[in-house]
Task: inverse folding
């Protein structure tokens, strides 16, 4: 395992790291500050993966390629939500007077303009990197003025559907791009000038999506599934939009994942709501999450320190504890958004405007503590502990044999811990990695597992991961 993990580490620049050994501390169970029980017999949701939101508007500079490579190869971002914007300047005049008959020449010309060329090329590159079925195309921004711009005029619903259908047709059947998922309207519950997507009330939202689902099926595009509702507020999703969507069997047949957004942690009972419906089999994905900071949408840089990173990870743990099967950080890299008319500085990769290169910020490494060590297909399993300074989650993947225990320690002093591993395969050795104010994904050495017990010291105020593979030893 050591050689495997060391090989993985080469992808991330850690900068001046000094290695020290925490693994074989002589801790007796009675002297431990905390006992943490990890029980593989009690399984929760299966993890679909972790990923990023990214803006196709940034494609065009070769510097984006190593940034994408870093996000996929090192962070292990296996799910991508690629933004294509702004819809209001796509079909600025009607292609024809019949929303059920494409003007092929019109759309062929439109979809070969520079905006779409950037999107097609980034999708092509993601496909080459193996991102296909778990690639979501998300359309953002207002719609053409003649359709309503900040709303969808009821008499223009079919024209709106035609525009989206033409986009899907061109991407999938003309450009032969591979993507499994589509998010046609972003944050429709918002109603403001700098809109994320046209505002629709739940009834209209469902009506438009029914029309889109029906036409996708008629055009042979129903292999592309929907992530819905992608509204801004979790409570609006479960109180208003999802109940309306769930009334429509055609929409539900076309929906692969329920996509929710949150920049304030888990604040609405999404898990219990979904489990109470006939659609509990549809996984919950957090398709946008981060810790909110004013100004990052509007051209202001932020303070990307450990406090910010730990808040972001605490929210991620809240989502996972409450049933999320996937989570996508907003966002992959700094970029310019037309619908905000400003640079966005949410990126876990920051852009150097002078050199045009991207480099990791603190929350990149914090996310890597989770993304890199919890494979798709792993199940979250039970953790029992009673220390108020700790949040601990555990995941076991029966295919690879990987066991990963991850968490946040908010205490001001190091914590002696004994992990009792129950109903789990034999893992002989594990590794401890942590991120704190001064260290990034620091490799603190090997930990011996003896009689299904692991003893170590968890550093103060850090995000940590203890991970190992069944049967692997370092010597």
Result:
């Amino acid at each position: 395992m050591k050689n495997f993990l060391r090989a993985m580490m080469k992808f991330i620049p850690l900068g001046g790291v000094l290695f020290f050994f925490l693994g074989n501390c002589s801790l007796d169970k009675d002297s431990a500050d905390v006992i943490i029980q990890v029980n593989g017999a009690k399984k929760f949701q299966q993890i679909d993966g972790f990923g990023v939101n990214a803006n196709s508007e940034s494609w065009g500079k070769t510097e984006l390629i190593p940034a994408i490579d870093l996000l996929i190869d090192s962070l292990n971002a296996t799910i991508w939500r690629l933004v294509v914007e702004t819809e209001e300047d796509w079909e600025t005049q009607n292609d024809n007077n019949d929303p059920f008959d494409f003007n092929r020449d019109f759309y062929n010309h439109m979809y070969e303009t520079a905006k779409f060329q950037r999107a097609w090329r980034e999708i092509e590159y993601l496909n080459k990197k193996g991102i296909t079925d778990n690639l979501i195309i998300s359309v953002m921004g207002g719609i053409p003025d003649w359709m309503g711009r900040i709303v969808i005029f009821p008499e223009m619903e079919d024209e709106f559907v035609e525009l989206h259908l033409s986009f899907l047709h061109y991407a999938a059947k003309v450009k032969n791009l591979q993507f499994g998922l589509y998010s046609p309207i972003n944050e429709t519950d918002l109603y403001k000038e700098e809109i994320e997507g046209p505002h629709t009330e739940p009834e209209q939202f469902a009506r438009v999506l029914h029309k889109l689902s029906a036409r996708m099926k008629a055009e042979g595009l129903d292999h592309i599934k929907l992530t819905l509702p992608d509204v801004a507020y979790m409570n609006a999703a479960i109180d208003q939009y999802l109940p309306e969507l769930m009334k429509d069997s055609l929409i539900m047949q076309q929906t692969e994942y329920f996509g929710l957004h949150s920049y304030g942690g888990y604040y609405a009972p999404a898990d219990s709501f979904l489990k109470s419906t006939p659609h509990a089999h549809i996984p919950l994905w957090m398709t946008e999450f981060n810790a909110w900071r004013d100004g990052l949408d509007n051209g202001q840089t932020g303070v990307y320190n450990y406090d910010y990173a730990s808040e972001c990870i605490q929210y991620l743990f809240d989502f996972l504890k409450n049933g999320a099967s996937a989570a996508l950080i907003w966002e992959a890299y700094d970029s310019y958004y037309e619908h905000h008319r400003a640079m966005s500085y949410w990126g876990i990769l920051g852009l150097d405007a002078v050199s045009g290169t991207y480099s990791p910020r603190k929350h990149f490494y914090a996310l890597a503590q989770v993304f890199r060590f919890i494979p798709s297909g792993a199940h979250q399993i039970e953790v029992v502990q009673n220390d108020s300074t700790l949040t601990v989650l555990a995941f076991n993947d029966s295919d690879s044999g990987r066991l990963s225990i991850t968490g946040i320690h908010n205490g001001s002093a190091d914590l002696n811990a004994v992990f009792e591993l129950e109903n789990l395969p034999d893992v002989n050795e594990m590794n401890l990695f942590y991120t704190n104010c001064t260290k990034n994904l620091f490799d603190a050495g090997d930990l011996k597992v003896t009689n299904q017990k692991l003893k170590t010291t968890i550093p103060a105020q850090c995000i940590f991961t203890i991970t190992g593979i069944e049967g692997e030893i370092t010597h």
